[in-house]
Structures are given as C-alpha cells and as structure tokens.
Amino acid sequence: MKQFDITYFHGPFSNFVVREDVIADIAASGMTLVPLHYDTETNKEALPILRRFGLRAIVSDPRIHRIYGADDIAGADAMAREVVADYAEFDNIIGWDIVDEPNAKKFPVLGAIVNGFRRYSPDKETVINLFPNYASPEQLGNPDYVSHLEAFVNIVRPHLLSYDHYHFLGRQNRNEILDLDVDERERLIRLSAETTENRGGFFENIEDFRSVALKYDIDQMLIVLLTEHGPYRNLTIGELYWEVNMCLAYGMKRISYFTYWEPSHDDHWQWTNAMCDTEGNKMQHWYDVREINADIAPAGRRLFNTKSEAVFHIGEPEAGAAKFESYGPITSIEGENGVIGFFEDGSIYLVNRDFIRDNTFTIHTDKPLSVLSDDRFIPVDDCVITVELGAGEAVLLKV
To answer: How far is it, in rounded angstroms, from Cα 2 to Cα 123?
Structure first.
C-alpha cells in the first residue's frame, strides 16, 4: 500500500457507476479508493470519471474470475499480461481485486494469479479478502484460523492481508427459519451468520490478524459492517466509530465499509440502511460515514507510515487481548473500557471501547505528549492529560 485509503465493498450498479453525480457523492463521502467489480467496458468507462474526482481504483476483471473459477494455474500468467496491457492507459488503478473469501483449496491458483500480476504490474497490488475467524473449518479448508492465515501467506504470497468481521448482530426482524435451498457456499455463510447476540471473537480475530501481518511484514486492512442485513442490525454512529477506530488502533492501513450501495431486494438478507439505496439516494449512513471519514483521515494518514508496536486494553481485557499496565511514555491510565495502540514513531492511539457511552481517561506520562486536534498536534505541557471520548471515538497522541 502507498497511502491510507478509505473504501467500501459493493458499490453502485453498473448503470450508476458511470454517472458523474454518483461518483461525486462517493468522493464527497470521504472515500478515496473505489472497487470496480464490473465488466471490462464498464470499468474502463468509470475510470476517467473517478480520476476527475481524485479517486483511485482497484479493478476486478471477468478474466481474473474465469482463471480463478477454472483453477487454471497454467493460464494465470497470460491472463495477467493481457489484463494489465488492456488497462495500461489508466493511471489511477492501484491494483487488482482477485476474489472474496476463498477456501484454502484455491490458494495454489491464487498464488499463480498474484505471481502473474507481480510480473506484469510490479507497482500495483492485488487484493484477496479472507474469511473472519467465525468461519467454519469447512469454509476455511483449514483446521483453525491462524493456520489458515499462515497457509495463505506462504502459498499465495499476497501483497496485503484483508478480512471482514461483522460484530453487531441482534436484528429484530431477522428471519427465524433459514431457506437453505442455495448453493453450498451460501449455505455455510448463512449458517455462520445466524445468531441473536453480539458476536464474540472480534478482538481475537484482529489480534491474530495483526500478529500474522507483523510476522510477515505485510500491510493489513479490515472490511467492517455498515449495512443492515440478515441478522446484522442497523448500526449507530457510535458503533461505526468503534469499528473504524479499532482498525486504526491495531495498525490497519486501509478501512473498508460493507456496503456503500444497497445490494438488492433480497428475501433472505433484506438489505437496508446502506449509505445509498438501490437508486442512489443518500441514506443516514452516508452522512454518518462522511463525518467519521473526515474525523479519522488525519490520524489514518499519520499512522500509515509507522508500524504497530503494541496494543493493550484498559480495564478488563477482551478475550485474546493484553491488559494495559504501563508502556512507553505512559506510566498509568485512570479509566475503564479502552483500547490503546502504540506505534514505532511514538504515536499512541486511544479508543473508547464502549460504543454506547462516553468515557473519560486520565493519562499519566513521564514526558509531555502532543494531542492531534484539527489536523495538527497541540503540545501539552503537563504530564497529565485528561481526554473525554464519545462512544467509540478516539484520540491520537504523540511523544
């Protein structure tokens, strides 16, 4: 990755993505990177429009899908050469989107595809999004989650690590009975989603992902829940803040929302409350995300060029996390229910772990810190700093 980006998974339908007013809305929401998951002609028509609004793109082309679907390892190199040459005139492509949530049996063909793109577009990345840790061994194709991540890195040699994790369940009008007259992949996805409580394992997932990313020195990104569907509820702005700020505290270099556009009228998933409806009309989450993106972008840009060093939980830690006692310049913290990330350049990212209530933290340090405010650092002369954070909100500090 070359810069901090904010993006989404699932955007406008093909007849909308080539409209300037639609692209203008995407840019105005604070997105910086657009996934183009269309036919080749639509992708090419959209790319110049994106460029006019300062947007870059990750391109998914049908030729990639054909090679992947056929397990055509021998044909991957020629496909990559053809695709790269076909899009050579567009300078706002930063990479190639390969597939979402592959089973491990697909890792060999993915390795061949990634290798082809490394050969013919060495300045661009490839994106392969992985399952979350609540996927079953049957979905993963591996006995456990960490071995799945390790196998992916060693076989595929990816440019980056990406996964999705949808934490907030409890939708009131969810379907009580699943219609399982669907293909096997969809059946497993629906079964893994079906529950009535907030899903556990968010922090275990992000801890494991961070650990593997640091071990192999690979940038990481997370796709977070936005759109109400299936068992997933309509999120508050505090819950949205919580998701994206946890990404930054754990060293994510890119954040993606699921979804920007309402996917369809589906009897099972019952999509609603995206950023835009199926006709492109802005919904409340468009305004929520615009606010959040403007708020987190200054911190995201600063944290992009440094590496995560340590992450702790303030108060009782969630499963998989370490409890904060003292670290670096911070000798103690008064307060409960926080997450604090430390970075190699002296940056410190403190998040309110409560997505419902405000929290106050008093930070004691052995040297003065600065606080990021209005896109600039303000020095604090005292070695005691008190910060009040809204639900899910965060503050960036620096030595």
So the answer is: 10
Give the pTM: 0.93
Distance between CA atoms of 120 and 84, rounded to whole angstroms? 7
Task: Phi first, then psi: give them for residue 215, nearest 5 degrees.
Answer: -60, -40
Helix/strand/coil for 21? helix
Joined tokens for residue 210: 């961070």
* pLDDT digit string, tens, across residues 169-214: 887 655 444 455 666 765 665 555 555 467 889 999 999 999 999 9
Q: What share of the chain is helix, strand, coil (3-state, %, to 5)?
A: 35, 25, 40
pLDDT tens figures, 202-261? 999 999 999 999 999 999 999 999 999 988 989 999 999 999 999 999 999 999 999 999
Sign of the CA dihedral running 177, 182, 185, 186:
negative
Cβ pair 65, 101 in contact under 8 A: no
> 337: which DSSP letter?
S
| Residue 20 CB coordination number (10 Å) | 10
